[in-house]
Amino acid sequence: MPFPQPFYKWRPHPWHGLDPGDSPPKVVNAYIEITPFDSVKYELDKSTGYIRVDRPQRTSSQPPTLYGFIPRTFCGRRVAALSPSSEKADGDPLDICVISERPINRGEIILRAKVVGGLQMVDHGEADDKIIAVLENDNIWGAAETLKDLSEIMIERLRHYFSTYKYIIGEDLNVQIDQVYDREHAFAVVNASLQDYAEEFGS
After folding, report:
1. For position 191, what pLDDT does the model report?
2. How far out from the chain centre does Cα 64 lie?
3. Which residue of 42, 67, 120, 125 has the fewest CB atoms within a 10 Å radius of its CB?
4. How far is CA 113 from CA 121, 142, 164, 165, in A?
5. Which listed CATH number (2.60.120.10, 3.40.50.1000, 3.40.50.300, 3.90.80.10) goes with 27-167+179-201?
6. Ranges 60-64, 150-154, 158-162, 192-196: which has the least confidence
7. Is the preceding omega at residue 25 within 30 degrees of 0, hence cis?
8. Which among 129, 116, 30 is positioned nearest to 79, based on CA atoms?
9. Closest CA to 70 of 50, 89, 88, 44
10. How many CB atoms lie within 10 A of CB 124?
């Protein structure tokens, strides 16, 4: 039986070996690191491409959606330029939150996500945007095109989670969300991260 094309003989690096999708910035591939069922913050190890434990969450807060990144994106100078109060970008792949009606309880998966908006987050002076998307073929949310098609409580939960998930009692939390933006600005952020990646790592 012939292998399908393209065929990866070895497991590709999730950040550099996978592609961002065939129709960004509207529909992108998302590599999921953590789910709403996780009380531990998992994160891609940039050297090996495996998932490592970043930290157990100190509080009871858990992510309200699937959470991961868009492959072959990089938050560099172009992403920072779209975040006026940031001093620079965080140098990571672009984060993405994906809403799904059916519970998905495992990470290290790839899915197609439709971009509908985002959060302009600044973490210790660094641009750390969170793209908001829906599972492309979701039976409930798949028809969403903009943030207006989502429930307000979902956006509120995302804002609260990212505003507090690094909170440590007795320490200052230098994290802010400057704005919630709709899909046109989200498209600009995705495009900027793709260009930043090409500049940093090559096309």
Report:
1. 98
2. 13
3. 125
4. 20, 9, 25, 24
5. 3.90.80.10
6. 60-64
7. yes
8. 129
9. 44
10. 13
| Residue 70 identity (one-letter amino acid) | I
Residue 104 burial class via C-beta count within 10 angstroms: exposed 0-12, middle 13-18, buried 19 and up: middle
Q: Check: CB of residue 14 under 8 Å from CB of residue 71.
A: yes
The pLDDT tens digits of the residues spanning 5-44 come to 677 888 999 999 999 999 999 999 999 999 999 988 899 9
- Read off the amino acid at residue 196: D
Report the candidate in 117, 142, 147 with the shortest Cα–Cα distance to residue 130. Answer: 117
Query: Tokens 């409930």 identify what position?
Result: 140
pTM flag (> 0.90): yes
Task: Answer whether 121's CB lies under 8 Å from 80's CB.
Answer: no
DSSP string, 65-120: SEEEE-TT----HHHHHT-TT-SEE-SSPPEEEEE-SS-----SEEEEEEEEEEEE
